[in-house]
Write a structure and sequence with these properties.
Shape: elongated
Helix content: 10-25%
Largest sheet: 4 strands, antiparallel
Strand content: 25-35%
CATH class of one domain: Mainly Beta
Structural class: alpha+beta
Length: 185
């Protein structure tokens, strides 16, 4: 696939190891028909398509999905990707499912709130979730509210939002290798 180019862009850095995936191929569209404003929002000046997918490239050049650029929110100056925090929480043996959403915070702008569902037969406390969330990550990534509920924590992707805190029961609380750093062909 020599005619396909991929790069990750973060804050204008086109050689980032994590950022929004931009693609170029000879078969790429020139733009949306009679929609120049929409075209300008998804096409770069040099002809790459902004996918909206945030990816991470490892030291071997493999790409991993992190989340969607439009799902990301800022908490105290840190970019938070709810999907990444959800996947981290779901590695806990007592958590079957997690959903993370931003809520307003006077100090940090927004903060993550986690809705979790305990695995069958497991007991999960807010303290357990907090300890697990803080262990491998910076404190800003840890959800501010945690707990276990009996209802399924609906994913943001097409399944709606989790129930509001006052209604929930039980409490709430790869890819292809790159040829070179910065751009793959």
């Amino acid at each position: 696939m020599e005619d396909i180019r991929a790069r990750l862009v973060r804050d204008g850095d086109r050689g980032a190891d994590e950022g929004e995936l931009e693609l170029w191929t000879p078969a790429l569209m020139q733009g949306y028909h009679h929609l120049p404003a929409k075209t300008a929002g998804v096409m770069t000046e040099d002809g790459y398509y902004r996918t909206g997918d945030v990816m991470r490239r490892d030291e071997h050049g493999f790409y991993y999905f992190v989340g969607r650029a439009d799902d990301m929110f800022v908490c105290g100056g840190e970019n938070i990707y709810p999907g990444e925090v959800e996947r981290m929480l779901e590695r806990h043996p007592g958590i079957q499912q997690a959903a993370v959403v931003p809520v307003p915070d006077e100090v940090r702008g927004q903060k993550p709130v986690a809705f979790v569902v305990a695995a069958p037969g497991a007991t999960v406390t807010a303290g357990m979730v907090k300890d697990f969330a803080l262990a491998p990550r910076p404190g800003l990534c840890a959800p501010a509210s945690r707990g276990a509920g009996r209802r399924a924590a609906a994913r943001r992707h097409g399944q709606g939002r989790p129930p509001a805190p006052d209604r929930a029961r039980g409490g709430l609380a790869g890819g292809a290798p790159a040829a070179e750093k910065g751009e793959s062909r």
